[in-house]
Every structure is written in C-alpha cells, then in structure tokens.
Specification:
- The protein is 31% helix and 26% strand.
- It is α+β, with helices and mostly antiparallel strands.
- It has 4 domains: 94 residues, Rossmann fold; 56 residues, Dna Ligase, domain 1 (2-Layer Sandwich), CATH 3.30.1490.20; 129 residues, 2-Layer Sandwich (D-amino Acid Aminotransferase, Chain A, domain 1), CATH 3.30.470; 95 residues, Glycinamide Ribonucleotide Synthetase, Chain A, domain 4 (Alpha-Beta Complex).
- Strand 19 and strand 20 form a beta hairpin.
- It starts with 9 loop residues before the first strand and ends in a 6-residue tail after the last helix.
- The relative contact order is 0.14.
Length: 437
C-alpha cells in the first residue's frame, strides 16, 4: 500500500460510546496504516481495544483541542448529536481532518421537517406529509386521513421519535404526548404526520466526500422492540446484510433516484455534504421511497457491515475526509452473510435497570467468525457491567443468512446478565425469501 509520511501510521479518534463505534474501532485497529485509536467517551469494550483519553469536557472544542494536541490524523464521529451541534465545523476551523457533515448538512437528520421539505422541493420519492406544531390542527388532519398513519418528532430522539399508529386514537395520543414535550422533550415541539407506507424497509449507507458517492452493501434494521416487529420503536434490535430483496439493479435505482438527487439537492441549497449519508427506505409497490435520512453510520447496521468489509476502513475514511474517494479502487466485501443481534436490558426503550455483571463474554469471543461489540457497558473494578438499554451486539458471519443467524444465536445463548432481553427473529424477512409483506 503506497503511502509516505505521518499518514502511513495514523492516529485516529473515534467519537462515541456504542456498538457502532466499537465496530468501527475494531476495524480501524486491524489497519496496518493505524498506529493508535483513541475513543471518547468510549465503553468497556472500546477500552480493551483503544485508548480512552481523560478530558475535562465532552464538548466539540475540548475534543478538537485534544485532537490538535495529540496529533490526530483522522476523526470519525458516530452519534448524530455531535454532528447536529456542529463538531465538524469546529474541527475544520482548526484544519483537522474529520469524517461527517457540517451542522447545516446534518439537518437532513436533525430536522425531519427540513428533510421532508428538501425531498418535496426536488422530487425525491417519500411519503406524503404535513407539518404541525398545534394539537388541534394535527387532530383534524389525522381524523380526515384515517389510520394507519405515522407520527414523527421533528428533532433528534435516539430512534424513539416515531410512532406508527394503527388507529386514530393511538395517533392522537402520540401527537399529544409528542407536542407537549412529554415523550421526547423539545425534539417533539414540531411533528411530521405522514402517510403509512407498505413494504420492506432497507438501509442504504453511502460514503460521500463532496464529489464522489460510494454506496455500501445493503442492510436491514429491526426497529421494533418485540418479535414480529411488535411494540415501540427502538434505536434498533438487530440487523443483517446482504438483503435478498435488494439486487444490483435495485441498488443502482436507489443510487440514481434517491442518493445522488439528494446530494445534488443539498448542493443546490448551498450545502456541501460530506461523510456518511444513510437512507432508510421503504420498498413500496411504486418503488423505493425515503422513510428517513441519517447523517452518520447506522446502529445496528454498522455491526452487520463491518464484519463483511475487507477493504481497509482507515484508508477509505481518510479518503472521505481528504476528498479523494474517486482515487480508491472499489470496496471489497466478504461474500458471506452477517447477522447481528442486540442483547438489551429488559424494559428498553422504556425505564430499565443497569449495573448488572455480564457473564460469558470470554466464551463468545473465542468463537470463530463471531464479533462482540459493546454498546452500553462500563467497567466496575474488574467487572464489565450493563450501563444502558442496548448492551451488546453479537454479530456472526455465515455462508448464508440462515447460517449467520444460527451462529449469532448460538453465541448470544452463551451470554447472561440480569434482565437480559433480545429478539429471537432477527433476519426473519430474509428467511421468508425476501417477500414484501
């Protein structure tokens, strides 16, 4: 791999503390180009693989000062909150290389109202919608439209800002508690009410350096907390890749009808997008339509993608940060399937207890083609304990999706902590021959 100077042995900073960031960290550690990976704030798993700096604050300026002082060559931002608050602008103002969109570009995730308006203006396929900030106006519209119908908080809500209402009463209650701030705080003071779309959802992530767009292989998330997609939405309970229903022709269509037009639309609005663009799509009978955009790597999609990526992640992300994606060869992917299952705390996404010791990690880590990504974990003395809702991601490779799923569930059965919960049906759509349900 021809390269000279400091960047032949890079120092990389990963910002975040979840399974997505742990998966990225473990991939970066494998790179011969990387000398050291720093993670902040990190978690118990990331602390085993990387260095955790002691900082006085978690704000963007403090992180930028650390990156400058430490000589960090590349920073990768996981959580959307940092991007929405403008961490990329802070780093770039200091001449630091960082992967992610500017604060104005991050509005494609931080404001559903902005994203829907952009799609409407430029003809990017998405669900019909209306925006409301008053209960009575929303009530009249919902009663006129009927159910099922979808209620979305405008702002960031950690994957918990969407209610798919099966009846008008449920929709009106979702509107009431969202607009009042009871559900997701200030993020819900404006809402988007949109038509319910039927079909399968799929996640398409793409890297973009301002000039060149490189889509990653498709994956599919499982947002609902319960088997059979029952119960409230979460940040994601598992994912798998590839997605049988998304063939190469459909991938090209998605790129031509959604990804590239969206990046061009932002450009026409005076916004240059860089980093990761995540399109959550519904495969409807009328073709793929946008459910939502995210401005970063997905969680848990990343945990299903990183085990399949054969290309050096550090080299690719440095090319994104330096605006030279076009100079790289195509990404290489393991042809095998990957299934990732989240081990969560019972009660998530609602109230749940934490601080329970996790047993069985050593046994799982010894398994071939199985990857343990820490999400909400912490160290208590020498013990690794639970520290939040989505505790661990267990990812496994297999010759096909059934094989990968069997391996993932074999692994997760070796783990235990008090009140551990996980879905038993991750990848069920793929095993149902990818039919649109």
């Amino acid at each position: 791999m021809a390269d000279t100077g400091a960047k032949s042995r890079m120092q990389v900073l990963v910002v975040g503390s979840g399974g997505r960031e742990h998966a990225i960290t473990l991939k970066l550690v494998q790179s011969p180009k990387v000398d050291a990976v720093w993670c902040y704030p990190g978690n118990a798993g990331m602390a085993q693989a990387a260095r955790i700096p002691k900082l006085d604050s978690s704000d963007a300026n403090t992180l930028a000062e650390f990156a400058e002082g430490q000589g960090i060559d590349l920073t990768i931002v996981g959580p959307e909150g940092y991007l929405a608050e403008g961490i990329v602008d802070v780093f770039r103002s200091r001449g630091l290389c960082i992967v992610g969109p500017s604060q104005s570009a991050a509005r494609i995730e931080s404001s559903k109202v902005f994203a829907k308006g952009l799609m409407e203006k430029y003809g990017i396929p998405t669900a019909a919608y209306r925006v409301f900030s008053e209960y009575q106006e929303a009530k009249g519209y919902i009663e006129e439209m009927g159910a099922p119908i979808v209620i979305k908080a405008d702002g960031l809500a950690a994957g918990k800002g969407v209610v798919v209402a099966e009846d008008v009463e449920t929709a009106l209650e979702a509107v009431r508690v969202t607009l009042s701030g009871q559900r997701v705080g200030e993020a819900g003071r404006r809402i988007v009410v949109e038509e319910f779309m039927e079909g399968q959802e799929v996640s398409i992530l793409a890297l973009y350096d301002g000039k060149t767009c490189v889509p990653l292989v498709p994956s599919q998330d499982h947002k609902a907390v319960g088997d059979g997609d029952q119960g409230p939405n979460t940040g994601g309970m598992g994912a798998y890749s590839p997605v049988p229903v998304v063939d190469e022709a459909l991938q090209r269509e998605i790129c031509q009808s959604i990804l590239l037009p969206t990046l061009e639309a932002l450009h026409k609005e005076g916004v240059t997008y860089t980093g990761v663009l995540y399109a959550g799509l519904m495969l409807t009978k009328a073709g793929p339509k946008v459910v939502e955009f995210n401005c970063r790597f997905g969680d848990p999609e990343t945990q299903a993608l990183m085990p399949r990526l054969r290309t050096d992640l550090a080299e690719v992300l440095l090319a994104v940060g330096e605006g030279r994606l076009a100079s790289l060869p195509p990404l290489e992917w393991d042809p095998r399937a990957c299934v990732s299952v989240i081990a969560a705390s019972q009660g998530y996404p609602g109230p749940h207890d934490t601080g329970f010791p996790i047993v069985g990690l050593d046994a799982v880590e010894k398994m071939d083609d199985v990857f343990v990504y820490h999400g909400a974990t912490a160290l208590r003395g020498d013990e690794i304990v639970t520290a939040g809702g989505r505790v661990l991601s267990i990812s496994a490779l297999g010759d096909d999706i059934q094989g990968a799923r069997d391996r993932a569930y074999e692994a997760i059965a070796k783990l235990d902590f008090e009140n551990m919960y996980y879905r038993k049906d991750i990848a069920w759509r793929a095993l149902d021959q990818g039919k649109v349900d």
